[in-house]
Amino acid sequence: MTGFITKLFVWFTLIGLFSGCTAVSPSAPPTTGPVPNGRALVIGDISDEAAETIKGTQPLADYLAGQLSEFGITHGEVRIAPDLETMIQWMGRGEVDLYFDSPYPALVISQETGATPILRRLKYGVDQYHSVFFSRANAGVRSAADLAGHVIAFEEPFSTSGYMLPLAYLIENGLRPVEKESLDTAVAPDEIGYVFSTADNTTVQWVISGIALAGVTDNVTFGRLPVDTQADLAIFAETGNVPRQLVLVRSGLDETLVAKIKSELLAMNDNEAGQAALDTFLTTEFTEFPEGPDKALAEMQHIYQMVQAQK
Question: Do the bridges between strand 214-218 and strand 131-136 make them parallel or antiparallel, or are there none, so unpaired?
Answer without folding.
Answer: antiparallel
